[in-house]
Design a protein that fits this description.
This protein is of the alpha+beta class and 282 residues long. Helix content is 35%, strand content 15%. It contains eight helices and ten strands. The strands form four sheets. A four-stranded antiparallel sheet has the order 1-2-8-3, with helices on both faces. The protein starts with a helix and ends in a 26-residue tail after the last helix. 42% of the residues are buried.
């Protein structure tokens, strides 16, 4: 069968509508709200731009991921990228908004079990497309996915879900480096690369930070950051990472009795871009 944007978007939404596919496990209710889906072509000029900008020897182009997965070369003209936004639920956003030093336990579980749902979605979609006769790979699920150190960016990965979403018409970056989509900044992202032609989603923005209101004087995420890692100049990743290790983990242990993987993300709630694009209706 010939795959289309509409077919894939429906498949993703149907998959995430099944409760066991969208769960925080320890807590009732879904991990995420309804997904937002976008598409891009491997020929998009931003893919080679990011390869040069991030690290030309480390970051991989979409067709390079397929080549690594299937051991043959692919023409970028026939390679597409499927990207999605998984928004945090209103209940979790409301609870996180009330905190000023560490997110609630539900937020931690979205990072742990919700991200597991995200990866399961990517793996299931890639397997489904491959079964239909289209070579497909989910970089985040691949044993080839890796992180690296960078003098320029502190930490980099050889595939970025946020940058892929930006290329696929799903949003622009905020001052804190989060992606602001029509569903807001409080979200997680995923993608699958497929050997097949899909219609790219038009990018309704011209600059990488068009939706961020910092350029208009907004300081909400600066004020929300307990690590003081966000300034008008941008996001200090070192301060952010240190706060996770030195503050978030001890707070989670004392407050929740939780010693697993813990995160912050307070800059994603209590801000104008929490659940939408500031000044624009969804």
């Amino acid at each position: 069968m010939k795959i289309t944007n509409a077919y894939i978007e429906k498949w993703i939404r149907d998959y995430m509508s099944i409760p066991e596919n969208n769960t925080m496990k320890e807590f009732e209710g879904p991990a995420f709200d309804l997904p937002l889906v976008g598409f891009s072509s491997a020929t998009d000029e931003l893919y080679p731009f990011y390869k040069r900008h991030i690290d030309p020897d480390f970051y991989r182009l979409p067709q390079e991921w397929l080549q690594c997965a299937f051991g043959k070369e692919y023409d970028a003209e026939n390679v597409s990228v499927i990207s999605w936004v998984l928004p945090q639920t209103k209940e979790n956003r409301d609870k996180s908004r009330m905190q000023d030093d560490c997110p609630p336990m539900e937020w931690q579980m979205v990072r742990v079990h919700g991200e597991e749902c995200n990866r399961n979605l990517a793996k299931a979609l890639a397997e489904h497309l491959t079964a239909l006769g289209y070579d497909a790979v989910a970089p985040m699920c691949s044993d080839q996915f890796s992180w690296g150190d960078s003098e320029k960016f502190v930490k980099i990965s050889n595939w970025s879900e946020r940058h892929t979403a930006h290329i696929s018409g799903l949003g622009t970056f905020g001052l804190c480096d989060g992606l602001i989509s029509p569903k807001g900044k409080a979200a997680r992202y995923g993608s699958v690369i497929v050997h097949g032609k899909l219609d790219p989603t038009p990018r309704p923005y011209k600059t990488y930070n068009e939706y961020c209101q910092a350029q208009n004087g907004c300081t909400a995420c600066i004020r929300r950051c307990p690590a003081q890692a966000i300034t008008p100049e941008g996001h200090d990743k070192v301060k952010c990472i240190l706060y996770h290790a030195q503050a978030i983990k001890p707070i989670c242990h004392e407050r929740y009795g939780y010693d697993g993987y813990s995160v912050c993300g307070l800059c994603q709630t209590g801000v104008p871009c929490e659940c939408g694009i500031p000044g624009k209706e969804e």
